[in-house]
Amino acid sequence: MPRLKTFLKYWLPVALWMILIFSASGDGQSYKHSSRIIVPLLHWLFPWMSQESVETLHYLARKGGHLSEYAVLALLLWRAIRQPQKADTRPWRWPEARLALAIVFLYSASDELHQVFVPLRTGQVSDVCIDTLGGAAGLLLLWLLGKIFKRW
Predict the structure, then answer these.
(1) Which of 21, 47, 89, 96 lies 20 to 30 Å (CA to CA) from residue 144?
(2) DSSP letters along 39-68, please?
(3) What pLDDT does 150 receive?
(4) Is the pTM of this model over 0.70?
């Protein structure tokens, strides 16, 4: 029973987040779906903005989504690997963060490979870099917050 509890508490959130990422990457119409929301919002907020600028902001918002979804994945992975307990005073361990980031990289690469086989999608090495950078940013932010609040 303790193993099941550990899985449910630490690894199930990781698996669910990975499933969410995978399902989003399987949507061949994702650019079209996000443009239905973001582009009209940008036109409403900035009616004077050129279409080219709106498209650039839409692109940046999509890449920001990559950064944030993989930052969350890295944090969930770090939590699952470390399995912190209440009043955990263990020092920060970089090998835990490196392992979480390596898994982020591998998952991102596999996700981009998956997109090669999805109609209207393309796998891009640049997205793997952005995803991995998002994971690194999430872990760095966690480390900084731990330093600020004297957790490690």
Answers:
(1) 21
(2) HHHHHHH-TTS-HHHHHHHHHHHHHHHHHH
(3) 86
(4) yes
